[in-house]
């Protein structure tokens, strides 16, 4: 299977380096993406939109033959879901890792501190403690060393979806810094961040208890979970 790996904010394709060997050992062809504006600290990212990120994923889908699986981390869930909306007949499954699909009209996060059209990665003190589980000082340095400011619009642009066939594409949600019960509760309570999950017809939950960056804290286990989902 062709597996397209979509990073979250601040990260490029190399953030999946510790996950790809396990997927390749399982026989999959792996395509880790670096989204527009994340190529280097010097990239011009102010004009780059959420749709530009979606278009980059759709272009990679179109460049491959046959069905694909999308794997999204964190804010990459908005990108993956919009790519499914654009190509529902080409995506066999989406694996949301510490992530979830973002509904039409919603955004990833419009409260992150930004300046000059970009969002630098906040200091570790910005995050809740449950998001930092298993991230020792070495792993934190590794993430910060590769972190690049993200285009602000990747987080603040409103999602635009139009094809309800997206609800027919099965998904796996890998719960890391929250649990399945928490997500089901958010769906019942009508939280906007969970609304789209409740509309998808085939949803599988897999627990991988760790912090918000499992590709760093539990990469081999994450590779196994993704391979099992495929």
Automatic annotation (TrEMBL):
One of its GO terms (molecular function) is hydrolase activity. This is Alpha/beta hydrolase. Residues 3-224 form the AB hydrolase-1 domain. InterPro entries: AB_hydrolase_1, AB_hydrolase_fold, Sec-Metab_Biosynth_Hydrolase. It comes from Cryptosporangium japonicum. The lineage of its organism: Bacteria, Bacillati, Actinomycetota, Actinomycetes, Cryptosporangiales. Keywords: Hydrolase.
């Amino acid at each position: 299977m062709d597996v397209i790996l979509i990073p979250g904010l601040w990260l490029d394709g190399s953030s999946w380096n510790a996950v790809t060997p396990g997927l390749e050992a399982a026989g999959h062809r792996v395509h880790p993406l670096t989204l527009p504006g994340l190529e280097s600290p010097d990239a011009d990212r102010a004009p780059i939109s959420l749709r530009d990120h979606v278009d980059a994923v759709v272009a990679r889908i179109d460049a491959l033959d046959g069905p694909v699986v999308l794997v999204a981390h964190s804010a990459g869930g908005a990108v993956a879901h919009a790519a499914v909306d654009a190509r529902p007949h080409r995506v066999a499954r989406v694996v949301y890792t510490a992530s979830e699909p973002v509904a039409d009209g919603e955004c990833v996060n419009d409260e992150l501190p930004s300046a000059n059209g970009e969002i630098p990665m906040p200091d570790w003190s910005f995050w809740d403690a449950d998001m930092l589980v298993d991230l020792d000082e070495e792993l934190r340095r590794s993430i910060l060393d590769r972190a690049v400011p993200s285009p602000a619009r990747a987080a603040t642009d409103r999602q635009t979806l139009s094809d309800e066939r997206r609800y027919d594409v099965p998904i796996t949600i890998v719960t890391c810094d929250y649990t399945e019960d928490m997500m089901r509760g958010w769906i019942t309570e009508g939280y906007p961040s969970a609304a789209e999950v409740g509309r998808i017809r085939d949803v599988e939950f897999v627990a991988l208890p760790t912090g918000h960056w499992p590709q760093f804290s539990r990469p081999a286990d994450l590779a196994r979970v993704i391979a099992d989902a495929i």
